[in-house]
Design a protein that fits this description.
- The structure is a single chain.
- The protein has 274 residues and is α+β, with helices and mostly antiparallel strands.
- The chain folds into 2 domains: 122 residues, Diaminopimelate Epimerase, Chain A, domain 1 (Roll); 134 residues, Diaminopimelate Epimerase, Chain A, domain 1.
- It is built from 5 helices and 17 strands.
- The chain has a 17-stranded mixed beta sheet that branches.
- It is globular.
- The protein starts with a strand and ends with a helix.
């Protein structure tokens, strides 16, 4: 499945057939493009005692993520279509807390999913970012250049950098250096953002544990929040990503809306993969 080109392998693991110690290895094996199925990550479905279902997310490098905006839209569609939660309002348990999702249906087909992404976190120790207080429009030196960064968590950590132009920006060079910078104890997702106007942003994303991806839902939300905080954009924006567009609204909480697609389904033989 994919949301704006941010693609995931979704596995129903409610029977816990894939045991805990194998989850990272499974993700690394399945996500290898050209050598396996290929994806940005793996989403696993679990039963939940506090929500309609529980989602766990593993990146392509085998590390576990707290939350994913595009992933949770895929997850909600999967739960609906597989009768795990056959309703238009689905509550999903994640490592970042419970998230509400609403499905938009046309002739019984899901055309978009809206997600309540919760509230942003700016305190450094909760993101985490080394230091005290908040990290808003601060200097970060990388490759001999100084960038202004704003850091926040939207269930997972993000570092936002506003730039004048994105088409030729060296995302592949700077992304991994910032992701692994000593300032970020758990590494960080990096968004390079260009302001089109008050209502539109253009974003390229370097995802922690994955690399540059075509889209990132939490990254789109973090970009709108950071831009609003710095007076660069309003509280409702259309975010243009390499894989397509997402709508983000930010008032007391964050709402994100976008399409999601099922591409194919199949079977994998665990004894041959692991």
């Amino acid at each position: 499945m994919h949301g704006q080109g941010n693609d995931y392998i979704v596995i129903d693991n409610r029977d816990q057939r894939v045991n805990e110690e194998k989850l990272g290895d499974l993700s690394r094996s399945l996500c290898r493009r050209r050598f396996s199925v290929g994806a940005d990550g793996v989403l696993l479905v679990y039963s939940s005692t506090i929500a309609d279902a529980k989602m766990r997310i593993f990146n392509a490098d085998g590390s576990e993520a707290e939350m994913c905006g595009n992933g949770i839209r895929c997850f909600a569609k999967y739960c609906y279509e597989n009768n795990i939660a056959r309703k238009e309002h689905i509550r999903i348990e994640t490592l970042a807390g419970i998230r509400d999702t609403w499905l938009s249906l046309e002739d019984g087909r899901i055309v978009a999913v809206r997600v309540d992404m919760g509230r942003p976190i700016f305190e450094r120790e909760k993101i985490p970012v080394l230091g005290v207080g908040k990290c808003i429009n601060e200097d970060l030196k990388v490759n001999g250049k100084t960038f202004k960064i704003t850091c926040l968590s939207v269930g997972n950590p993000h570092c936002i950098i506003f730039v004048d132009g994105l088409d030729d920006f060296p995302v592949g060079t700077l992304g991994p250096k910032i992701e692994n910078h000593h300032l970020f104890p758990n590494r960080i997702n990096v968004e390079f953002v260009q302001v089109i106007n008050r209502d539109e942003l253009k974003v390229r994303v370097w995802e922690r544990g994955v690399g540059e991806t075509l889209a990132c839902g939490t990254g789109a939300c973090a970009s709108v929040i950071a831009g609003n905080l710095l007076g660069k954009n309003g509280k409702r924006c259309l975010v243009h990503l390499l894989g397509g567009d997402l709508e983000v609204e930010y008032e007391d909480k964050i709402l994100m809306t976008g399409p999601v697609e099922k591409v194919f389904e199949g079977r994998a033989f665990l004894e041959e993969i692991l």
